[in-house]
Every structure is written in C-alpha cells, then in structure tokens.
Specification:
This protein is mainly α and 215 residues long. The protein has a single domain, classed as HUPs (Rossmann fold, 3-Layer(aba) Sandwich). Helices cover 37% and strands 8% of the residues. The protein contains seven helices and four strands; from the N terminus they run αβαβαβααβαα.
Length: 215
C-alpha cells in the first residue's frame, strides 16, 4: 500500500517511474503479484522484479520458520521478529545500482516512521545516511555534477494520511497487498502488524478498506 502511494506521488511530481520489486524469499509473496498490478495501474514505464535469497540468511518471521506475531497490542515498541536483517539496506543498494545504469538520480522508497512496526531501517536517519553513501560510492555521483537523492515522502505521515493521499491521487487500494501471513488464497489475515496498521489507517481516514480479510 505504501509503495503504491509513493509511486503515485512520484508520478504526480513529474517523474518517469521504473518500479522495482524483490522476490527475497518472503512468505508473503502475494505482494509481488500486487506490485505488478499496481505498477501497471499507475503507469510505471517499467517494472523489474529481482530475486534475492534472504531466506538463506533467515532470522526473520518473514524469511524463516518463525511464526508471524498476531494481535499485538504493543506495535511500535521494540523491534519485532518480522524485521528482516538489513532488508532496506539491501533493497536500496539494488535500487541504487539500477538507478545508476538507467541514468536516474532519484530513488523513491515507501518507508514510514510514524505508524510502523519499529524497524530501524525505516527511520529518516537511515535514509539520510544512505543518501550520503550513494553520493560517495557511485560513479554517477563522483564523475558528474548529479546529486543522487533518496525520497521518502511518507516518512512523517500517519497511515490515515497515507490512505487519504493515495485516494487523492487515484490509487486503487484493491490492487494492493499488505499482509505478512496471507492464506493460500492470498487473503489477508487481519491480525499481523501490517494488517492491523492498514486497518487502523483506513478506519482513521474514514474510508473502507477494499481488501477481504480472513479474520
């Protein structure tokens, strides 16, 4: 959902967008089908899905044989077991490589630091640090006057704000997927952190979530 809104924001700002998704061994691979639908719906000029075997590393409920927490009442307190070690660092590194090959100077990412699950790689400090790294470690930045920028337009928005902004930009939320532990029919569980935050966002925005839930 967040990435869909970020894509819509980037397009509104006049960027020609190349969408990037990762098949990293996540249990919720239904998000990859959703990403293809969203990229097509919002007019991305291209969509690349890169395979990364983060299941070989494990250490997360999303990439290992660890139960996904359900019905947590303390979301945002501490770093949950759904944190995937260094995931956003890995994702941004691949995005940076693709941007350099494509001749792009701008990378958009849908991290959020208000209504989120406590992941350290969603914080503004991390995004700022990675942007500094990007401008130190790439040929594109060193050999030209171009400045590489990492955009995180949702960083200080609540989930309700994200829902409202997406609605303003015409995002079809029925095409999106948020659940960490969907059933065999890709139906959202309604109980994991991602589902609870999404449901809360729609409720606070006064809008109906178009997704069906198993719970």
């Amino acid at each position: 959902m967040d990435s869909a809104v970020v894509l819509a924001i980037a397009r509104e700002e006049g960027f020609a967008c190349e969408a990037l998704s990762f098949d990293y061994g996540q249990r919720h691979r239904a998000e990859l089908d959703a990403a293809r639908r969203v990229a097509h719906s919002l007019g991305a000029s291209g969509h690349t899905t890169l395979p990364i075997d983060m299941r070989a590393i494990g250490g997360s409920a999303l990439t290992d044989d660890i139960d996904v927490p359900k019905d947590r009442g303390d979301i945002g307190e501490g770093i949950p077991v759904t944190y995937v070690p260094a995931r956003n660092t890995v994702f941004l590194s691949y995005a940076l490589a693709l941007a350099e090959v494509k001749g792009a100077c701008d990378i958009f990412i849908g991290v959020n630091a208000l209504d989120y699950s406590g992941y350290p790689d969603c914080r503004p400090e991390f995004i700022e640090a990675f942007e500094r790294l990007a401008n130190l470690a790439t040929k594109a930045a060193v050999e030209s006057e171009n400045v590489l920028r990492i955009h995180s337009p949702l960083a200080q928005m609540s989930k309700a704000d994200i829902v409202r902004r997406g609605a303003e930009l015409g995002v079809d939320f029925a095409l999106t997927h948020s659940c960490y532990d969907p059933d065999e029919g890709s139906r959202s569980c309604g109980r994991c952190d991602a589902c609870q935050l999404r449901i809360k966002g729609f409720a606070e925005a006064g809008m109906k979530d178009p997704l069906p839930y198993s719970h």
